[in-house]
Amino acid sequence: MDENSIPTESIDKLYKELDKEAESSGYHLNPDEEFTRELVEGLLVNEKRYGYRACPCRLASTVKDKDLDIICPCDYRDPDLSEYDTCYCGLYVSAAVLKGEKEVKKIPERRPSKSEREKLEKKSENTATGMTKLSKPVWRCKVCGYLCARDAPPEVCPICKAKKERFEKFL
Amino acid sequence: MEINHVEGNTKGEIILYAISTCVWCKKVKKLLNSLNVDYYYMDVDLLDGREREKVEEEVTKWNPLCSFPTLVINGKECVVGYDEEEIKRKIKSG
Questions:
Q1: How far B56 CA lies from chain A's nearest CA (Å)?
Q2: CA distances (Å), origin A109, targets A26, A77, A91, B32, B65
Q3: Does domain A2-98 have CATH number 3.90.460.10?
Q4: CATH label of the domain that carries residue B60
Q5: For A128-169, CATH number?
Q6: Residue B19, in any domain of the structure
Q7: Taking the model in full, what pTM does it have?
């Protein structure tokens, strides 16, 4: 896979960026640097291949709209950190793991199956409206849960830095 | 279809469905290599079109969430995820 080989400098750069971003917003990268760098490389491979940083440990559909939930950081990171102290691939870990009090182990897949996802998508098209009488709609970041009341979601989530497309209309 | 074969001691038909960028899938490959067993593997993310659909259907039969790594042993048993103990146990009993 030479076409997908990633220069070491690019891995270093993204690793540092992600680490800084994580620490500044209360998240932590896995302290096992070798392991984490492999995942960072996977993100860069996917970015090159698909144009977006799909989770290295999940099968990307290659269609961005269908993979929004698994663009790193994925929609499942925060619930997995709360329940298992690690995200699905092990890139992000809890403070307990960082302190060496807990270990990163394999965790179950939280992402619904393809057929379930299709059903959920149809359902959300049918709901999501209804609440009225608010002066502004409320937008929710699907990555970290940040809420804001404004006409449109922000370009980038001020908390976790997820992009606009990761917001849903909450109220 | 590209199926990779790693030669070793035959302990039955062992097929690993993996993703080329997945660290846990790489750990399973390393484990199988260290056990020196004969196995086949496919990096599903490197397949396209109909071929990929077919493999996804096959993986879904064993593991409805179609997550990776999925290891199928003798067409009878399956291990989802990197679980060293379970893989060792099932390969021995398979």
A1: 10
A2: 23, 11, 15, 23, 7
A3: yes
A4: 3.40.30.10
A5: 2.20.28.10
A6: yes
A7: 0.90
The parts of chain A modelled with pLDDT lower than 70 are 1-4, 126-132
Nearest to B20 among A1, A35, A90 (CB): A1
Peptide bond into B69 cis (omega under 30): yes
Q: Establish if B26 touches chain A: CB-CB under 8 angstroms.
A: yes
Question: How much is the pLDDT for A131?
Answer: 54
Is B93 within the bounds of a domain? no
**Residue A3's pLDDT is what?**
57
Are B22 and A46 within 8 A, CB to CB?
Answer: no
Q: Does B33 reside within a domain?
A: yes
Tens of pLDDT, residue by residue over B32-52, are: 999 999 999 999 999 999 999
Smallest Cβ–Cβ distance between A57 and the set B22, B64, B83 belongs to B22
3-state helix, strand, coil in chain A (%, to 5): 45, 10, 45
